[in-house]
Amino acid sequence: MKQTIQHACRIYRQDLLHITTNWVVAVIIGGLIFLPSLYAWLNIYASMDPYAQTSHMKIAIVNEDTGTTIQNQHIVVGDEVVQTLQTNESFTWSFLPYEQALQALKNGDYFAVIVIPNAFSTQLSSILTDMPTKAHIDYYVNEKINPIAPKITSKGASVLTQQISSEFISTVNGTLFSIFNTIGVEIEHEVPDFQKFEHYLFTIDQRLPEIETFLTQVAQDGQQAETLLNHTIAELPAAKAILANGLTALQRAVSLMNDTEALFNQLMPTIQQDLQSIQSIQQPEQHLQALQTILQAHIEAHQQLGHVVQSLLQQRTSLDTATVQQLEQLNTILQTMPKLSDALATLQQLNMNQAEDISTLLNKLQEQVLPQLRNTFAHTKELLTKANAILQQVQQSLPDAINRLLKAQKMLTTANQSVSALQADFPAIRAKIQALTQKIQALEKEMSITDLVQLLKNDVQAEQDFFAEPIQLKEHQLFPIANYGTAMTPFYTVLAIWVGCLLLISLLAVNLPAQEHISVRAIYFGRLLTFLTLSLLQTFIITVGDCLLLNNTLASPLYFILFGLLISFVFITVVYTLVSVFGNVGKALAIVMLVLQIAGSGGTYPIELLPPFFQAIHPFLPFTYAISLLREAVGGIIWTKVSIDCLLLISFWLFFLLMGVFFKQLLRRKMELFMNKTHDSNLFH
Asked: Which keywords belong to this entry (predicted)?
């Protein structure tokens, strides 16, 4: 074992001496050491900002929008889109006719064509109608030009549609919220009325039972009133006849009164002449009888007039208030008639008491009866004149009263029908009022009218900006990485280290000419040290260059270099062992491993997006843990992950180291025969 180590060290020293003393070898080795770093640096630099050059990608825009009219204003949204794109430097925009644009796309002159259709504005404005229609933009892409370009241009088209949608939503919402703000200001002035209405509605809801009872009573009273009014109208002809008869009787009473007064006036001189001789007359029955006749006629006239007045008062419902008052006054006056009866009774009593003193009788007649008769005649005549005027007035106003009663009958019938209809609809009205009350109470619990006004009066611009972009993505980067190039550094660095190992084993010999005093294992370890030294130099240049190129955007540059050296230590052992043990077959295996690891390590795409085969081999690839280890240094170190990655990488190193120790000696003869066969073909070196 000691001798093997000594021989290995001697081989290593000789290799270093040859490299340092032979300038040709030194130049070649220098190129091998430096070349892999170029691979890494160029790819990382190209990945720094791959979308920075999209401004050179040509996209054609076809605007066929004919516009639409909204509130007497012609609007062409397509023109606004074109104006926006003219200031957008994300791509090179060309504005072409439809046919020319599609032909240029087919020829590969443009990466994509975006067509704004002629109904674009109409479709957008359909949101203001009862049949809204989604607007669309046609997107044509030539995927034959480049596999990545369609994804980039598609992103540009998506951003364009999103921007149009955002601006349109912002404009529409701005208009709506401006209207809401105006409504809120107007409603604020009406809040007291709303509150009063709410109070009235709640009061009505509480008094619905009372209202229902009131409606029932009104209906009953209305029916009774209608019945009474119908009866009154039915009695109108009789009242009219009574009035006519009353006027006739009154006229007769007036005539009788005039005759009576004339007779009285005719008798008065005779009575006065007879006063002096009255004492000589022993039987004044003739004079008393005449006077009695006059008084009796007067009383009959008053009685007839009283009957007429009483009949009219019984029909007072068909008369107006003034007429009724006049009739009642007349009736009161007629109540004085008992005085005439008393006078007549006095005369009769005097007649029966003829034995009394004639002188006393004549004195009473002269002093009491005759003046009273004169007053009665005058008063009765005045009453008859007033009664005649009143009855004539009543007769004149009776047609108007009849018309009013008929109108009242019609109105009362209509009112009763309305009350009946209201009673029939009252259960539904009550249900509606109760439902509305419950809804208002529920809304009051959620939001009062004051809160609603405040909501409607919110800042229009702020709400417009909010609905233009209601949700903003607030990104929190746990392990922030500066750019895409920094994110791809682990993959390209690991790939460059492996490529550097392939370059070394492709140009440098892994074996020495057969020497009996040097064992196979000594050669294996001796050349392993040489390859390891060169690979570590390659990796050091790569990692240091990465740190400088990325301008301190790595989280842990020192650990990035150290982790890279560990990866180099493992990779060179793997590649060197494959070639040392299997010769040219080992080179092929190293290349196959490279191909599998590029796809299956998850360095570019998440492993979850890859086919099942690559997901299956993913845990068994050195790239998997090498890239993961460098990512820790790039984004931020979690030492548990670092420990696991280092442990698994060392496991790969140990596995291939043991393979070289045991299988190189075991397969030496067979591999020499295999190599001789390939050399004899003059196709392999």
From this structure: Coiled coil, Membrane, Transmembrane, Transmembrane helix
Q: Name the residue range of residue 140's domain.
A: 59-180
3-state SS assignment for residue 69 = strand
Q: What is the CATH number of the domain that holds 64?
A: 3.40.1710.10
Domain count of the chain? 3
Q: What is the 3-state secondary structure (H, E, C) of 179-226?
A: HHHHHHHHHHHHHHHHHHHHHHHHHHHHCHHHHHHHHHHHHHHHHHHH
Bigger pLDDT: 538 vs 675 = 538
Length in residues, the chain: 685
CB 491 within 8 A of CB 468: no
Least confident of 128-132, 135-139, 200-204, 340-344: 340-344
**Per-residue pLDDT reduced to its tens digit, 544-591:** 998 998 877 888 999 999 999 999 999 999 999 999 888 888 888 999
pLDDT of residue 176: 47
Report the distance separating Cα 617 and Cα 627, nearest Å.
15
Residue the block writes with tokens 């825009």: 61
Ramachandran angles phi, psi of 69, nearest 5°: -115, 125
**Is 622 part of a structural domain of the chain?**
yes
Q: What is the maximum alpha-carbon separation in the chain?
A: 214
Measured in degrees and rounded to the nearest 5, phi and psi for residue 315 equal: -105, 30
Contacts of residues 467-476 at CB distance under 8 Å and 24 or more positions apart, as own/partner, are: 467/169, 467/170, 467/173, 468/166, 468/167, 468/169, 468/170, 468/173, 469/166
Q: Nearest CA to 302 among 262, 363, 260, 265?
A: 260
| Single-letter amino acid, residue 406 | L
Provide, for the chain, the percentages of residues in helix, strand and coil under a 3-state DSSP scheme, each rounded to the nearest 5: 80, 5, 20
* Residue showing tokens 């994804």: 151
Instruction: Say whether both 293 and 404 belong to one domain.
Output: yes
Query: Distance between CA 541 and CA 538 in Å, rounded?
Result: 5
Helix orientation angle between 149-206 and 460-468, rounded to the nearest 10 degrees: 130
Is 192 within a domain? no
DSSP 56: G
Beta bridge partners of 69: 74
pTM of model > 0.70: no
3-state secondary structure string across 385-446:
HHHHHHHHHHHHHHHHHHHHHHHHHHHHHHHHHHHHHHHHHHHHHHHHHHHHHHHHHHHHHH
Same domain? For 440 and 526 the reply is no
Mark whether 586 and 648 lie in a shared domain: yes
| Pairwise CA distance, residues 265 & 609, whole Å | 143
- The pairing of beta strand 68-70 with beta strand 73-75: antiparallel
For the record, the structure tokens of 615 come out as 């997901």
Top pLDDT among 661 and 438 is at 661
The terminus-to-terminus CA distance of the chain in angstroms comes to 33
Sheet-wide strand order for 92-95: 92-95, 58-63, 112-116, 138-141
**Can you name the residues that pair with 61 across neighbouring β-strands?**
95, 114
